[in-house]
Design goal:
The protein is of the alpha+beta class. It contains 16 helices and 18 strands. It comes from Escallonia herrerae.
Length: 570
């Protein structure tokens, strides 16, 4: 990288409103550049900024040399559109060994200063930048750069997870993901919810499915011990010799009637030698491998002195705050060790999980519907450019789908009614999965309800208790629980939630029915023992929301660093 020049005078880069067609644009705070979005996303496409001197930085998407000019399409990630940047070939010669070919190569990073001008009539651009000074340059070896200029698939760039943010698709998804995260906090903060950080490491299995990643240091400790045990025989011999030598020194000093100070110092050294020998003798008795107790792994010697896992949900923990602060939510990563390679599953994914005290299943459904509508409207209001890109490249119905959900009331029907509808439909529709009461709805059933039957989101509630988690409130019929799922077109289930069981005896019995031990859930039962309260909540799969919004087919493409069986890059 070449050295950068001093900053231009403040009056040349003065900050004023972008709505003023004749106003200057400001440099981004904490960065020595004007955001490209603030130039070309103005109502006039940036034409009103002609004549202004600015600095921009970004990466070359496309480049070509025409006569003595290098034409660069530069993108800085602030929006999906590029700014055309013109660099005179003579200017390139001042950069030393850099060639025009290196500047126009896809992937080259440029930080330049120049003057904005209106291009000749007939060109697509409304504004372009004439470069007067190249401040910094990051070149690429075009022959080795892995992202080709030609069209490539999302599957192809998964192998370059560290470079794929430079592609139009992944950068657009990143901006949409950011917008949805911001909208999530905005919605809950607006409605008086408190954001609670729940632990990543847990000792509770929220779903009772057992598909959890274990957190342990026993394996590392065992490997470390095995290495140490190979050294112990030699160390033990040396320690015995040292202790013997130190003992002889003490004996000699005593027989020579040395001073008390000399004898005391020698005795101290002898004690240390004996203590080290004792430790080595005790360690030599240890057996290599994972520690065992009564024929089972001894987790008492593990880091947390018990089994621990990566969380599958923050729900149980956030309930502790709902039972004190009333309306709370958590938003963070969750993990599931499920060996699935489908387009809808990840080993690491994010969940939005609100929990509401003094709320029943109806309140829960109202909150879930309002939240989904809010997210859809937020994208329509704030991310129109990126959504139009999604419509053009991936799903022509993406914007229509958001508009429909934002403006339409969700259908609500019981699980029993949903099964009846699907059983009738199965007479004419060949479902791969059988429909019957007592069996969970498959994705094809969920999509039939939302895409064929109603053509809008559907909330199914009151599921059989045998297919739902222990913490869901048992209804008066003792056959169903107050659970609900929000189903949407394109992805099926988007939200799963329920009214929580607040009765101590009932939830204790449910834990036992599920074959789960009571001990890890004693703290959870305390919430029912002491000041129990009616409360409800739900979880929204954040990546599924992005799939729904964008129309992207594979969930691995809507999270920055996908983790799934066999892959955990970076």
């Amino acid at each position: 990288m070449s050295g950068s020049s001093s900053a231009p005078p403040a009056d040349e880069l003065a900050a004023v409103s972008l709505t003023d067609s004749g106003a200057a644009v400001s440099e981004a705070e904490f960065s020595q550049r004007v955001l490209i979005r603030s130039i070309i996303r103005r109502p006039d496409g940036g034409a009103g900024l002609a004549g202004q001197k600015i600095r921009v930085g970004g990466w070359v998407k496309k480049g070509r040399k025409q006569r003595a000019i290098a034409f660069l399409e530069v993108n800085d990630g602030s929006c999906e559109a590029n700014l055309q940047v013109l660099v005179d070939a003579e200017l390139v010669t001042t950069l030393g060994e850099v060639t025009v070919g290196q500047i126009v190569a896809t992937g080259t990073c440029v930080h330049v200063e120049g003057t904005l001008k209106v291009p000749p009539e007939g060109t697509v651009q409304r504004i372009e930048l004439n470069v007067e000074k190249v401040l910094d340059l990051g070149t690429v070896n075009a022959a080795k750069y892995p992202l080709p200029k030609t069209k490539f698939t999302l599957e192809f760039i998964r192998d370059y997870v560290h470079l794929r943010p430079r592609t139009n698709a992944i950068s657009a998804i990143a901006r949409l993901r950011n917008a949805l995260a911001y909208a999530t906090h905005t919605f809950f903060q607006k409605h008086g919810f408190l954001y609670v950080h729940t632990p990543i490491i847990t000792t509770s299995d929220c779903e009772g499915a057992g598909e959890m990643f274990q957190v342990t240091t026993l394996i590392n400790d065992a490997e470390k011990l095995e290495k140490e045990l190979t050294k112990i025989p030699a160390d033990l011999v040396a320690a015995k010799i040292l202790a013997k030598d130190k003992g002889e020194i003490v004996a000699q000093l005593k027989s020579a009637k040395a001073s008390d100070a000399e004898i005391s110092a020698a005795v101290s050294e002898l004690k240390i030698a004996k203590e080290n020998l004792k430790k080595l003798e005790e360690k030599s008795k240890l057996k290599p491998g994972i520690p065992q107790k009564n024929g089972k792994i001894d987790y008492g010697q593990d880091f947390f002195a018990r089994q621990a896992f990566l969380t599958v949900s923050g729900q149980l923990q956030v309930e502790t705050y709902a039972c004190a602060l009333s309306s709370v939510y958590t938003f963070g990563p969750t993990f599931r060790a499920e060996h699935s390679h489908t387009t809808r599953h990840l080993a690491e994914f994010w969940m939005v999980e609100p929990e509401i005290a003094f709320a029943d299943i109806q309140d829960d459904m109202n909150c879930a519907e309002a939240f989904v509508k809010f997210l859809c409207q937020w994208l329509l209001d704030n991310c129109r450019d990126d959504m139009e890109f999604m419509v053009e490249k991936f799903d022509k119905n993406a914007i229509d789908r958001l508009e429909m959900v934002a403006a339409t009331g969700f259908v609500r029907l019981s699980y029993t009614d949903a099964v009846a509808i699907l059983e009738e439909a199965s007479k004419e529709t060949n479902f791969e999965n059988k429909v019957e009461w007592g069996v969970d709805l498959a994705s094809e059933h969920e999509r039939y309800l939302t895409e064929v039957k109603y053509k809008k989101p559907v909330i199914v509630y009151n599921y059989p208790k045998g297919i739902k988690a222990f913490y869901m409130k048992v209804n008066a019929d003792n056959k169903t629980v107050a659970a609900m799922d929000v189903l949407v077109p394109k992805v099926g289930e988007l939200i799963g939630g329920s009214q929580r069981e607040e009765r101590y005896e009932v939830i204790r019995d449910r834990i036992l029915e599920m074959g789960l031990p009571l001990e890890p859930y004693e703290w959870y039962l305390d919430l029912r023992r002491f000041g129990t309260v009616k409360h409800s909540g739900f979880g929204l799969g954040f990546e599924r929301m992005i799939l729904f919004a964008t129309g992207i087919d594979n969930i691995r493409d809507v999270i920055p660093f996908p983790r799934y069986p066999g892959r955990a890059d970076l």
